[in-house]
Amino acid sequence: MNLDFMSLKTTSAAAVRGERHKEKILERQKAQELEQAMLSERELNPYWKDGGTGLPPEKDEAASVKKVTVVEDAGLSWLRKSYQRMKEQAEREKRNFEEIVAERYGSMEAFQSRLAEAEKVASRKENNYSSGRWKKTDYSESEREKKEQHVKKETRDEGDRN
C-alpha cells in the first residue's frame, strides 16, 4: 500500500472562497489603475480630475433647482439671474459688487430702476391673469337669443335649398 494520498494538499471551502475574494479585489484594483491611467493630467473636465466621477457634487443639484419663472415676465427673471451672476462674479474676482453693476448697467440706480419696472409689469400681468380678465365671457340673454335666431335662420335656409 502506498500512502501517497496523504501527501496531497487539501483545501477547505472557506480557503477557496478567500482566494476568490482576493482575486476579485485584485481585479478591481487593476480596473481602477487602468481608469487612472486613461485619465490624463491635462483633463479639462474638473469633475474627472483627482479621481472624480465626472459628475458635479449633489449639493449643486439642489441649488440648481429653483422656482420656474413665468414666460412674459417683462424680463424680471432675466434681471434676477443677471443680479445673481454679478454677485458671483464679485465674489470670484474679489471686486466691489457696485463696480460690476456699473460696468454692465451704468450705475446701481439704473439697474434697480430696471428691476423695479420689470417687477411692476410682471405683477400687473399676474394680476390680470388671476383676476379672471382673460376668462371667456358669459353671454347675456339678448346675445343668446340672437345666436339662437341665427341658428334657426340657417336651418331654415338649408331647408329651402332641399
From TrEMBL:
GO CC annotation: post-mRNA release spliceosomal complex
Signal peptide bounds: none
GO BP of this protein: mRNA splicing, via spliceosome
Record region (Disordered): 42-61, 121-162
Biased composition (Basic and acidic residues): 135-162
InterPro entries (alphabetical): Cwf19-like
Family: Belongs to the CWF19 family.
Protein name per the record: CWF19-like 2
Species of provenance: Apaloderma vittatum (Bar-tailed trogon)
